[in-house]
Amino acid sequence: MAIEAVFQQLGTTFETVREMLQNLGLTVIEDRPPHGEVLLVERLGNLVDDLRGWAEEGCAAVSAARQAVAHPPDMQRARQELAAAQERFLMLKYRFFDEAVTHRTIDALMRFGHQRGREWLGWVKSVVLALEAGRAPIRMLDEALLQAWKELVERLGVRSMSVHTTNIGQQIAPSPALRPRRDTQAAQE
Question: Does this model's pTM top 0.90?
Fold first, then answer.
């Protein structure tokens, strides 16, 4: 597959994750019941804001990487931008799976919803569904990044140069101490 197509697919997949997080943000922050600020809800909102920020930065880096692989290709810039996108993705992925969709978080949300009544319980169920729906796009993005790295490495490998040395023969030259000096030769003449 052409490197441009792989990076195009990566951009599309990163955009899917960004949109998923935008929707999650709407559910977590905008759709929550208007009364009753709670630390659990605020922390989740802050986490989602962080995730959305990393997704935005990752999308921008992938866009720059896509431009770098276009004609004329700048593979060094593509590598740097792909590394920046990978870094943002890793922060997003670790925080999503280590904080947002853990059993501890989901259980805390469900207990909270049951304690606060029907309105909050409906919100919690929407949040849990949105969180669970985020697993697949993030895994797809992980695979798309791997494919982009493979394609970039393959392209860089084709363009690299390999040097092989062979021993064809020996050259024997006198030691500098044994060579006559030009100034002594001129003086002797």
Answer: no
pLDDT digits 0-9 by tens, 80-130: 999 999 999 999 999 999 999 999 999 999 999 999 999 999 999 999 999
Q: What is the pLDDT of residues 140-171, one digit of tens each?
A: 999 999 999 999 999 888 655 444 455 665 55
User: Cα–Cα distance between 133 and 166 in angstroms, integer?
Assistant: 59
Output 154-160 pairs: Cβ under 8 A, ≥24 positions apart. 155/3, 155/73, 155/75, 156/75, 156/79, 159/75
| CATH architecture type of domain 3-159 | Up-down Bundle (1.20)
Burial of 145 (0-12, 13-18, 19+ CB in 10 A): buried
Domain boundaries, the chain: 3-159
The dihedral through the CA atoms of 141, 147, 152, 153 has a sign that is: positive
**Structure token digits, residue 38:** 């709670």
